[in-house]
Amino acid sequence: MNELIVFVGPNERITPLEVEASKEGFKYIEVCAFDYEHEYASKKLKQFLKMQDREVLFRFIFPFNFITFNQKMQNLIDTGTEESLAKLQIFEEYVNGWKEFINSVNTPIREVNSLEAVIFQRNKQKQYKKLEKELNNLPFTVYLSEEKDHKIISDMLEEYKGVVFKPISGAESKGIYIITKEQNRYLLKSDIKESRNIKDISNSLEETLKKLHSPGYVVQQKIEFSKVFGDHDFDLRIHTIGGEIVGTAAFFYNPETKTEEIKSIDSIAEKNLKLKEALEESKVIGIKATQILGLDVSGVDIMLSGKDYKPYIIEINSFPGWALLEANPELDIARKEVEFYKKILR
């Protein structure tokens, strides 16, 4: 087999994908995520691609936070949403740079997770609005853009037990805030994947909202999680490749060990009919959501709510990472993705 894969990433370590590609006899090269910016690297890569007589597969495996290494990011001083918006703008420039590079090469190129789909998925406002048109499994969502939104959020806190603020371009759960109203006090929890500590804020809701208010935030109803793992709230991660489910697991934070843990949920579902039905429904939703966003590979995060385990989409990831693979080596996720490469390069 002489098919070529170009892995575009941070050049930090050999990924499971590269190991599996090598086992299957693929030729592959790894290039730095910013090679398109450098004239010499760009020229050498173009020359190399022109020598290929078959379709070339491009797999972008860079993490979103890798753009912080870009020189443009070093000039940013502000934090929070302004930085988030700046990151999104730079990310769009970055992706467009690769799009221009690909268009400048005559060699036929097949992208796994097209750059258009990736840049669309990275904007949560666009992502949620598109999903809302075709699915009924999203939390109630508003988008901060005007002062009147403060009133909307106040009303949300009257109706729901809490609201979640998400930066439109956030990743790895950075910049997320949760506000809940308890005994006439407003409590704030920030960076929930890291600390999970709720901080009692003495200022008013208006002042808190003013601090968080920005066109760069989406605000959602806080979903009350189903108690599958005791009092631990959890996200259900569904990993899809080529329109098929290749793995599912529950991600939750353990306050005792202060670490995020991954557990199988399939074995628990076998003993609970309602949970089993909800898990199957979640898998269908995960596949459909991935197709709606035009992704080949995805990690769909779903939260199950209440005693009936109603599934709600929390987020779709175009770079789902290797946590599920590392926690469950028997799933062979990397091998299954390389098998997908074989199908599309035939």
Could you explain how this protein is built, in words?
This protein has three domains: 4-112; 141-221, no CATH class; 226-332, 2-Layer Sandwich (D-amino Acid Aminotransferase, Chain A, domain 1), CATH 3.30.470.20. 35% of the residues lie in helices and 26% in strands. The chain is built from eleven helices and 15 strands. It has helices spanning 16-23, 39-50, 81-103, 115-121, 124-134, 149-159, 205-212, 266-269, 273-292, 323-327, 333-345; strands spanning 4-9, 27-32, 56-60, 109-112, 141-143, 162-167, 177-182, 185-190, 198-200, 217-221, 234-241, 244-254, 259-263, 297-305, 310-317. The longest helix is centred in the first third of the chain and has 23 residues, at 81-103. The chain starts with a strand and ends with a helix.
Question: Secondary-structure element order, as H and E?
Answer: EHEHEHEHHEHEEEEHEEEEHHEEHH
> For the residues shown, what is the average pLDDT?
76
What is the structural class?
alpha+beta
The domain tally reads: 3
Number of strands: 15
Strand order of the largest sheet: 5-10-6-7-8-9
Proportion of residues in extended strands = 25-35%
Task: State Rg.
Answer: 21 Å
User: How far apart are the first and last residues' alpha carbons, in Å?
Assistant: 11 Å
List low-confidence stretches.
64-81, 191-206
Total number of helices: 11
| Major sheet attributes | 6 strands, antiparallel
Query: What percent of residues adopt helix (DSSP H or I)?
Result: 25-40%
Helix-strand layout with pairing:
Elements: E1 4-9, H1 16-23, E2 27-32, H2 39-50, E3 56-60, H3 81-103, E4 109-112, H4 115-121, H5 124-134, E5 141-143, H6 149-159, E6 162-167, E7 177-182, E8 185-190, E9 198-200, H7 205-212, E10 217-221, E11 234-241, E12 244-254, E13 259-263, H8 266-269, H9 273-292, E14 297-305, E15 310-317, H10 323-327, H11 333-345
Parallel strand pairs: 1-2, 1-3, 3-4
Antiparallel strand pairs: 5-10, 6-7, 6-10, 7-8, 8-9, 11-12, 11-14, 12-13, 14-15
